[in-house]
Design a protein that fits this description.
It is a single chain. With 142 residues, this protein is mainly α. The chain contains 5 helices and no strands.
Length: 142
Amino acid sequence: MRASVLGCIAAALLALVLSASVDAQSFAWWKSEQFQKDLALTPDQSTRIDDVFQTTLPKLRQQKEELDRQEAELSKMIAADSDEVQVARQIDRVEAARSQLNKMRTLMLLHMRQLLTPDQRARFNVLHEQWEKEHRKPQDHR
């Protein structure tokens, strides 16, 4: 259960962090008065979590740009009917970049989580699940 919650948090945070059209800071849960109150976050915890986020954000953006470059190259190769061996090598580069991005994101979330007490982690999981239900987009089932 913890891994799936962490995964949901990771996916949501990554989408927010990397979106050029969304101000990621407006979704910083550790700065939300309601989350601070409900989690009994101390000002020090909030600052330290923000430090983790601010330190990691430029690295995440850089890695996302690398992933985008590798994916663009793969698309060009496919459009040009490149040799399968060359395409397979490029797929490896794309997946390595994606893996590095996911690893970086997950470690950031781990470092944030480590700044919470066990009780705060449990309360956070409940709050996050509630937030997910309220903000989840309906899926198109065709």
